[in-house]
Amino acid sequence: MKILKYTIALLLSITIASCSSDDDGNTEDLTGQTGDLILKFDNGVGDQDFIFGTTYTKDNGETYQLETLKYLISNVSLTDSDGNVYTYPAEDNIFIVSEANGNTAGEIYITLEDVDAANYTQVTFGIGIDQERYASGADGQGDFLTTAQDEGMMWSWATGYRFMRFDGTYTSETETDAALNIHMGSVGTAIDNYKETTLTFPNEVLVREGNEPSVHIKADIAQVFDGATSVSFDDGYAQVHTDETTTGVIATNMSGIFSVHHVHND
């Protein structure tokens, strides 16, 4: 009996040691590691792909076509599984998502380079330019000021950035192929339309050295006009520029158009 007890005890000790060893081996040391992360923005209208020149119908029956679709994304940050927040470097943390730059699948890539390695569960980003960045003046914008000017994403420096540009035409009961120009943004410091949104990933995004995961973000353009507030082009929303009321409504709607469709940990 003593031999049997000793044998069982020895086997248990080996098993426990083996399990402990396996656990230690599964603890990944990410210290000092960085990796790239791709955010893929994919514009659509409801369950349809967005295509320039295609006619889309709003909830109230008005229709529209767009020939320009672009918006600003900034202040991207990532939250990991332990609640730690990684913020992309400020000088590079502003991007233009332009449908004209989409690939054959209609995706616009934003590549975040040298991100701290971690298991990320959420992404947060702003739509437009926050007041702190704006307050840094023209010199504080770096190369992006020229980029924004070239892309038609500014009224003037004193007035500020266009956070979005949707240009095209619309048709209603009273108008046919009338001009449609949605140029929402902040107006200096008088009107602040900067908004942020946080999206939770369906599974953890594993940023590692030598690995390049991607997050597929859907943007439902229909929600710009039929989101938190449904708007009518005939009631002043065909020309949105610097008016406090119309820009505020569009800014709130715009912040709700994004969702994460899926994640690839390739």
TrEMBL record:
Q: Which InterPro entries match?
A: MbnP-like_dom
Cell division listed as a keyword: no
Entry keyword annotation includes Transmembrane: no
Q: Show where the Copper-binding protein MbnP-like domain sits.
A: 34-233
Q: Which positions make up the signal peptide?
A: 1-21
Tell me the domain of life.
Bacteria
Keywords annotated in UniProt = Signal
The protein, known as: Copper-binding protein MbnP-like domain-containing protein
Organism equals Algibacter lectus
